[in-house]
Design brief:
Helices cover about 25% and strands about 25% of the residues. It is an alpha+beta fold. A five-stranded mixed sheet has the order 2-1-5-3-4. A hairpin with a 2-residue loop joins strand 3 and strand 4. The longest helix is centred in the middle third of the chain and has 12 residues, at about 30-40.
Length: about 80
């Protein structure tokens, strides 16, 4: 099972902080496309982390059943 964690504005838009996806044979791009359609995330700006490592959304990354995907709002410096 792939765990998806939502933070900040993304959590507000999805109205949840996490969910699990049963699919274990899915690419990161396919997962993000499914989430964009499900929650209308097209206009949102967010970063993606897989297993606590920020990776570009365009990366050809095949998710594993134990992966944790986080959708993160833009970071502010300080």
């Amino acid at each position: 099972m792939i765990e998806i964690k939502y933070f900040g504005a993304v959590a507000e838009k999805t109205q949840r902080t996490f969910e699990n996806v049963a699919s274990s044979d899915i690419s990161l791009q396919d997962l993000l496309q499914d989430l964009k359609e499900k929650y209308q995330l097209d206009s949102m700006v967010f970063s993606v982390a897989v297993n606590q490592k920020i990776i570009p959304k365009e990366t050809d990354y095949k998710l594993q059943a134990s992966d944790i995907v986080a959708l993160l709002p833009p970071f502010a410096g300080g």
